[in-house]
Amino acid sequence: MIVVGYLATKEGRQGIASALDEAVRRNSPVTIVVSEKAGGLAPEALAQRQRELDEIAQDARGRSIDLDVRVLSQRHDVAEDLVAVATETEAEVIVIGLRRRSPVGKLILGSNAQRILLDSPCPVLAVKTERGR
Question: Where in this chain does the record put each UspA domain (predicted)?
């Protein structure tokens, strides 16, 4: 099982693309974790998210990848949700997308990424977006 978080950002999209690639290499299913804050999203944002998840599901089917999408609205944050799902599913790996940082920002990893790396019950694959994307 490969666990990856959904974020509507280029880093989130790269994380999902890399998770699907990793699923093909490992012949493993993928669980996408969608952390939703209490109160949910505006209808337009919810529709956009569903369109993106439908495209991801279509890509996964075309590559013969079993895909599960979990929308979690009762948890605290993205890091906690990813670690909890990885623990529950006995995941082989968590995939996360990282954003580029300034020279000073490189001294400090993002707090969610750092918490995932430290608390994960399995290896973490951290991917950066390609230049120009």
Answer: 2-128
Kindly give the confidence (pLDDT) of every residue in the chain, 133 residues in length, as a single tens digit, with 9 standing for 90 and above: 999 999 888 889 999 999 999 999 999 999 999 987 766 678 888 899 899 999 999 999 999 999 999 988 866 688 999 999 999 999 999 999 887 655 544 444 567 888 899 999 999 999 988 754 4
Residue partners of 43: CB distance under 8 A and separation at least 6:
none
- Tell me, yes or no, whether 19 lies in a domain: yes
Q: Who contacts 36 (Cβ-Cβ below 8 Å, separation ≥6)? A: 71, 72, 73
**Residue 22's domain is classified under what CATH number?**
3.40.50.620
Task: Classify residue 133: in a domain, yes or no.
Answer: no
Are 21 and 4 in contact by the 8 Å Cβ rule? The answer is no
Range of the domain at 75: 2-128
Burial 46-58 (b: 16+ CB within 10 A, else e): eeebeeebeebee
Tell me the C-alpha to C-alpha distance, in Å, between residue 7 and each of 21, 82, 105. 18, 12, 21
Q: Tokens 């750092």 — which residue?
A: 114
